[in-house]
Structure formats: C-alpha cells, structure tokens
Sequence to fold (610 residues):
Amino acid sequence: MSTHIQQIAFLGTGLMGAPMARCLLHAGFPVRVWNRTGSKAAALVEDGAVHAASAVTAVAGADLVITMLENGSVVGELLFDGGVARAARNGAVFVDMSSVPPEIAQLHATMLLELGQHHIDAPVSGGTAGAAAGTLAIMAGGDAETFQRVEPVLRAMGRPVHVGPSGSGQLAKLANQVIVAVSIGAVAEALLLAAAGGADPAAVREALRGGFAESRILELHGQRMLDRDFVPGGAIRNQLKDLDTALAAASNAKLKLPMLEVVRAAFAGLKDTGAAGYDHSALLLWLEQLNAPARVGDAPDRLPS
Amino acid sequence: MSTHIQQIAFLGTGLMGAPMARCLLHAGFPVRVWNRTGSKAAALVEDGAVHAASAVTAVAGADLVITMLENGSVVGELLFDGGVARAARNGAVFVDMSSVPPEIAQLHATMLLELGQHHIDAPVSGGTAGAAAGTLAIMAGGDAETFQRVEPVLRAMGRPVHVGPSGSGQLAKLANQVIVAVSIGAVAEALLLAAAGGADPAAVREALRGGFAESRILELHGQRMLDRDFVPGGAIRNQLKDLDTALAAASNAKLKLPMLEVVRAAFAGLKDTGAAGYDHSALLLWLEQLNAPARVGDAPDRLPS
Fold:
C-alpha cells in the first residue's frame, strides 16, 4: 500500500465542498470532481479540476475519495448502491467529511473494510468562510495509520486532528454542535439581560470581547442578534438535526445533558413556529417570545424570504 | 473641571488590584495605594506607588479614586461610612471596578453625586493574567462625559467600553458571567459526550479549536476539565454569587433565562456537596455525578487543599 496519495476524487461540491475542493487544487493535488447538480462541479474546472460526469467515473482509479454530502443516507446510497465503493482503486481511503451519525460512520467503515477499502470520518466546523480560507476544524475518526496517510491532504483544507477510532470524528462534530448551540443560548440570554436592564447590548458585546466570555459565537452570532439578521448561515433545521443526533448519541451512552435538552427544545419550538429556515442565532427570538416584550435592539428582523 | 487626571488613589490591591495598579504605574500615572492588609499595597512602592496608611489619606486631593474590593458592601462602607467619598478632591471621579449588583452601583452613583462627586461602575473580566498583561475587558457604566475623562487611565489596564448609564457596567459583567457559566456547562457536556462515546476528549478539544466552538472557555476551562484541575482560578462560591445577582437582575426585569437557571442549580448543588472552593470548571463534576460512571479522562482530580 502506497502512503502517497496520487489521485483524489471529490464527491459533492456544494456550498462547503466547492471551496474545500478548491483548496486541494490550489495546493497542487490532482482532483476529479463530481456533483449531483453538475454545473457546481464544472465550475471547478477553471481551478484545475477534472469534471466527471458520474460519481463512478470520478472515483475510477482514485486512491482517495472525499465525500461532502447532505447526510448519511446520501453517502451510503452513493457508496454502496451507486457502486462508488467498488469503483475506486483497491485499498483506497474514503474520507467522509459530511456530518452523519457516529453509528452510520462506523457502519460505512465496516462495509468498506469488507470491500478492501479504508474509511475515515472527518466532519468539519468553520462554515463557508473557513472552507474558503482552508482553516476548517477537521475532526477525524478511524485508525491512526489511515489517518496519517490522508493527513497531508486534509491539511490543505484546515486543521485535521485524529480524535479516536471510527465514528469519533462524528462524535467530535456533535460535541462541537452542542457547544455551538448552547453558546448561542448563552449569548442570547446575556444580551437580553443587558438590554432589559437598560445597557446598550451592542456596546456590551463589544466590551465582553477580550474577556473570558470571548468566543466565535459571541463574535459572529452575537453580531447577528444585534443586527437581528436571521438569514442563514446555519439554518435551524440543520442545527435541530444535529442536536437530535447528539441526543441520540447521549441516550446510547445513557447520558443526561441538561443544557443540550434546553436548546434542543428551543430549536424544536422555533421549527414549530415556522422558523426552521432561520439562522440558528434566531434562538434569540425564542427567548424573546418567552419574555415578551423584552427585546435586543430596535432593528427590524431580517428574515429569509 | 479639569479633564486631565492628576492624582489617582487605588483602594484594594489584592489579587486583581495589585497588577492593575502596577499597569497604571508603568504607564506613568501617579498612584497612591491603600489596602486593608497593608503589606499588599506596600509591595507596590518599588513600582513607584506611594503607600498610604489609610484610605482617607490615600484619596486626599485625588481627582480619580479607583476601588477594587470584595463586594458592594465593602465599597459602600469605605466610601460613605469610612469618609473616603468626602476626602477626595471635589468633583473627583470614583471608578468602582469591583463586581457589585447594578442597583448598588446606581445607589453609590446617586450618593456620590449628592456629595459633588462622579461615579463610573467599571467591573472587569480576564482574571489575574489579563490584569497583569493590561488586557482586561472593562465594562463601564455612567455618564459619557465622565467616562471620557477617565478612559485614558482605564486604557492602561485593558479595553474600556462605555456600555450605558450608571449600573450598566455591572449589568455587562453579569452578562459576561452568564456566558462564562453557561459556556462551562456547554464544554462539560460536549467533552462528556465525546468521552462516553469512545473518542479521546483531549483530542476532541484540540480538534474543535479553530471551528465555531472556539472560545476562551474551551481553551482554558476545557483544558482544566481534561487535567481535572479544580484548584481555583475562579471559585464556585464567587461564580454562584454572580449568578444569583444575575438571576436577581433578571427577576427585576421580569426575565426568565432557562440556561442560566440550569447552571445556577448546578453550582448550588456543587456548593452543597462541599465544592464551593473548587474552580468553576468543576461544573464537570456535577455533570459526572448526574451521569455516573461516565467520566472525562483518567487523571486523578486535583482539588484545592
């Protein structure tokens, strides 16, 4: 087994996948791209990609297959029903950077191993900005030797860290989503408390930067709350899907996670009121509904059309 | 009224106050220091401070009086029962950097105004490290003109931001503490979820850095949880005091803040089991008790003696 990656197939070049593939191309890796909506993959040709008409064609002869798809079902269908798992070179590594439940990642790893292939689950955090800059947090699960083989490629897209055996990358992503969701709740409660007491919430957010409350969420989602800009970004329906997966993983491990339960209920409540397509910083709206007429700022709400 | 500060008195040179006063001295401001335990103030003489034997002596002729004391009662007693408010120059500014309830800050402001003095509430976040480096988050409430007069002095200790009228600085500090406490809860739940599912929690924390979950709390208190180092730092009894003040402020504003309530109950539970002196990252212990035998890491607990 060569440790040097010679041919990469990148399947799924949507909002996240396209800038990630571009990072690989700009780092000099040979990449064949495929996307269900072909035009999104074709756009990468000018960055040096080879555009494949089908996923099977894209992976033919590849020793590294990267998937960045909507969910675990789509990944499973493509790899196993769509014939992609068998079409790659024997002994290839399949790095699934999609967010899928840990047990599905483990199942895919087992199924690939039976076909003589390898699997790394490597979901990401950092959004489209992190994808474009090549600074994604990359959480990788699988065996250490396989991780080391693909690490130089992953490094072109961000900061890969091997976090444990198969499924651990997905577990780390769930941990990430728990922190993101609960932190959004924390910032919403803090800004509403400040505003209701007569302080200027925008100045409060500014003042808190540099102290112990400093975070990406205070920075980005705190600003969204002040602007009341709830156009996604990260939609509530996706956040809710991740939190449900996190609660299922907690339940499997017989864990009770009280803060996760509070934010899960908040996002579920928002979805029920038709806000599933709003950015997850709209957790503020749930908190304001609970505390009417308290409100953060005077700006009109910016909602997705 | 001169806008140029000529003589500063610094009252309360303990763990936080001493490095803050040192920043002023190193920036070239003339500072007279006083502390109840005199030796802690005397140690600043080598940095250029004048050590006063009493608080009244320290403030005689001062046009800026900074207090960094244990709580609102101690501040009130010193200023009004101890004669300090009258001993400063007429028209002096009293900047209280202690953490006190917003309504006490407003009361002090009113009482000082009746004596012809000015008041700014300007509590801080960033701990002893931030105090030593002169990088504290400084949250200032009071009238804008008075804030502008003292801003250059505050800037020697960190990043002052004017967040609103009297009491707003304290409200911002409460907002800060809400974010800190809830974020500690978020990190504890995330690391326990990762560990219980079989991932390496230390690698997960490392992987999450640079993604949307990045925060000072993940950085500092996440590492404490992995090291199981619960020697304070920020003690649970202080965190609980701040959260109770935050809940009282929420109640005054008729706000229900569900995440704050969960962490408040957790810290209260920890205090009841004798952990009041532990670092607030020991919220992890409460979560582990709720989920026994799940645990983050194998290290033995480091507890305060």
